[in-house]
Automatic annotation (TrEMBL):
It is a multi-pass membrane protein. The chain crosses the membrane at residues 12-38, 44-65, 77-97, 103-121, 142-166, 172-191, 222-243, 263-282, 289-307, 313-338, 350-369, 381-399. It comes from the Bacteria. Gene3D superfamilies: MFS general substrate transporter like domains. This is Major facilitator superfamily protein. Signal peptide: none annotated. Keywords: Cell membrane, Membrane, Transmembrane, Transmembrane helix, Transport. PANTHER family: INTEGRAL MEMBRANE EFFLUX PROTEIN-RELATED, MAJOR FACILITATOR SUPERFAMILY ASSOCIATED DOMAIN-CONTAINING PROTEIN. The lineage of its organism: Bacteria, Bacillati, Bacillota, Bacilli, Lactobacillales. GO terms for cellular component: plasma membrane. It is found in: Cell membrane. The keyword Lyase does not apply. GO terms for molecular function: transmembrane transporter activity. Residues 221-422 form the Major facilitator superfamily (MFS) profile domain.
Amino acid sequence: METTLLPHWRRNIYFFLTSQFLSGITSMVVQYAIIWYLTKQTGSATVLSLATLLGMLPMVLLSPFVGPFVDRLNKKLLLIVPDVVAAAFAIILSVVGTLQDAFPLWLIFISLLVRAIAQTFQMPTIQSIMPTMVPTEQLTKLNGQLGMVQSANMIIAPALGAFLFALIPLNFLILLDVLGAVIGISLLLFVKIPEHPVIDEPVHILGDAKFGLDKLRHTRGLWAITIVGAIFTLLFMPAASLYPLMTMGYFHGSVGQAGLIEVVYSVGMLLGGTIIGVFGNWRDRMPPILWAMAAMGVTFGASGFLPGNHTGFIWFVGLNTLAGIATPFYSTLLMAMIQQSFPPAQLGRILGVLNSIMSITGPVGLIFAGPLADMIGVEKLFIIGGVGSLVCGLLMWLLPSTCRYDVKLQAHAQPELTDTVN
């Protein structure tokens, strides 16, 4: 996209990033509070796995069908309406929790499901509008800066959440979600989001999902990256969903220490995102992606060998800081490559399918994660996840179509993409 088409793009995108930063904090505080409540009340890996499973299912099941709407409907509304719905359910959960002595598990699960559905609409919308709001040559840097915003949220939210969780009853803390919706909606009203002519075309849900799948399958290299990413999710997600139990169960820590782990991981992500945001113009982004997968595998796997005492927890803090630094080099650079591989008018449909495929194996792993963790120990799942990350990184390195994908992509890149890169 030409810079001249966006006369005040810097002011617009930074206002958008500010809105994401301010509105995201309250939502994440509530999310952490709910997970810590479940961990403290049940201490069950199965319950935590089920909660994470409900958070992933909408992404898997709905993403291919959400994409066509993202390409066609008003994107500002697609960001606002899910916030309104999530806020309404937060009010319901708060009222029920006030009237009863304890929160019904089924209502908590429904609330988590609704929040996940809202995110299923918002995530591909944000991913698809980024290329329309910034010049192509700035896309990697701005994705890095978006990652910095998200990391900053994850730094503040766990610390603030742990503090508020100790002071405020959960039934009142949940109402922060309503405040977040009001802030997010108010700020988005001032953001200009470019639209495309495809907005006026009729929606054919199955046909559009097939369109996204066909485009992805015929993009050589990216299809293989997607499949390897799905395997990575299968092996990595089960342990990632049990972080609170690892801290509070295996290391015998507190809610504050569980929040500390989230904070240091997010500080690492902020450092990694800062490096990408400042030095983000790699000629070949695959080497840093592969090194990131190796670093995540080593740090994650090593966590499973730590002793379950205070010394082990200190090492766990350090390893998670390193893992956090590596994470944006995988997620942010990969997303920038995907965004540059297709025209903006097609991104919603393609990202819907891609997000679904890369997430679909997560629920499969989570089905077994809880019972397996209860049986063999949560720390063993960290070893499995670490080894899985190393194996997936090795697969990407050995496949020529994936290892050389970005070199070919950038060789064919034009200021305005008109076709996919094969």
